[in-house]
Amino acid sequence: MKAIRLPVLAGGATALLGLGVALAFFYAPTDADQGLSQRIFYFHVPLALTSYACFGWGAWKALRYLRTRDERADLESYVAIHQGVIFGALTLLTGSIWARISWGVWWSWNEDQLVLFLVLFLFYCAYFMLRFSVEAGAARANMCAVYALFGAVLIPVSFLAIRLSKRFIHPVVFNSHGPQMTGSQFVTFCVCLAAMLGLFATLYAIELAGKRLDASLRELRELIAG
After folding, report:
1. The dihedral of CA 55, 59, 64, 70: what is its sign?
2. What is the pLDDT of residue 1?
3. How far apart are CA 190 and CA 149, in angstroms?
């Protein structure tokens, strides 16, 4: 069952990514002010939202570990946070490229929403320093779980900073009246978001399977050596 599910998941994510790229470049209209560079929006924002989902999932698994002491939840939290850092790095990269092309700057330290996302990203980067500086075991799992839960507090703060921003460098495309996009733009955005979430689910499943296989092989080698 699991062997069948992963190829299906990977195939679905690949199809959505292909469709998202096609819609972004050939279906969504060209922005009147920013021109072609605005199309990076369809990848930048879904990447950011997916990184939030990764960190949130990692925090949920951390909470499950603290409640159940199940080692599988600790590993799942680690893998989710690892994926979140990857998507976070891509968010910063695409955002910097978009800002440079459209507004002439790579970065602005005066923009609270940019700085807060960077703080969130660096906070979870430091998670790995903690994890690999402590010997594997219950103590490490406990500390990492608590750290992941503290990081979850930064997720709504970072998201709200973007929502409340009044500066031009990071336009708000969703407000209380709904999406500030045309129908074709909204469809393209939704497909790209589904593609990024599908990509996360696929990479998460692959990395998790690899980590579990590695642990099983290590236990087998120890058993043979003993």
Report:
1. positive
2. 43
3. 28
**Which SS3 state, helix, strand or coil, does residue 75 take?**
helix
Q: How far is it, in rounded angstroms, from Cα 35 to Cα 42?
A: 14
Amino acid at 146: V
Residue 161 tokens, joined: 């900073």
Task: Provide the token pair at 53.
Answer: 């989902």
> CA 12, CA 35: separation in Å to the nearest integer?
30
Cβ atoms within 10 Å, residue 58: 29
Mean pLDDT value of segment 81-99: 93
Find where tokens 């960077």 sit: 118
185 confidence band (pLDDT: 50, 70, 90): confident
**Cβ(69)–Cβ(54) below 8 Å:** no
Q: With helix as H, strand as E and coil as C, how does 128-164 read?
A: HHHHCCCCCCHHHHHHHHHHHHHHHCHHHHHHHHHHH
* Residue reference for tokens 């660096």: 122
Question: How many whole angstroms separate alpha carbon 47 and alpha carbon 54?
Answer: 10
Report yes or no on whether pTM surpasses 0.85: yes
Paired with 175 in beta bridges are: 178
Q: What angle do CA 91, 95, 100 make, to 5 degrees?
A: 155
Neighbours of 124 (CB within 10 A): 22
